[in-house]
Amino acid sequence: xxxxxxxxxxxxxxxxxxxxxxxxxxxxxxxxxxxxxxxxxxxxxxxxxxxxxxxxxxxxxxxxxxxxxxx
Length: 71
Known about the structure:
Elements: H1 2-12, H2 14-24, H3 30-36, H4 40-51, H5 55-69
Helix pairs in contact: 3-4, 4-5
């Protein structure tokens, strides 16, 4: 359930979140940001690819980001 809520939050606020995503994960390119387009699964996959995170590490990073973003 928590993952579904996070997906909704990210997708609904993607235009606002884009800049913060770019700041948080500076290695993500503009093309990566376009491809992600607010989808949590795409963000997790991109983090795994670009940063070499495990799936769990990427999920934890996204969770941390969303907690900070929603403050």
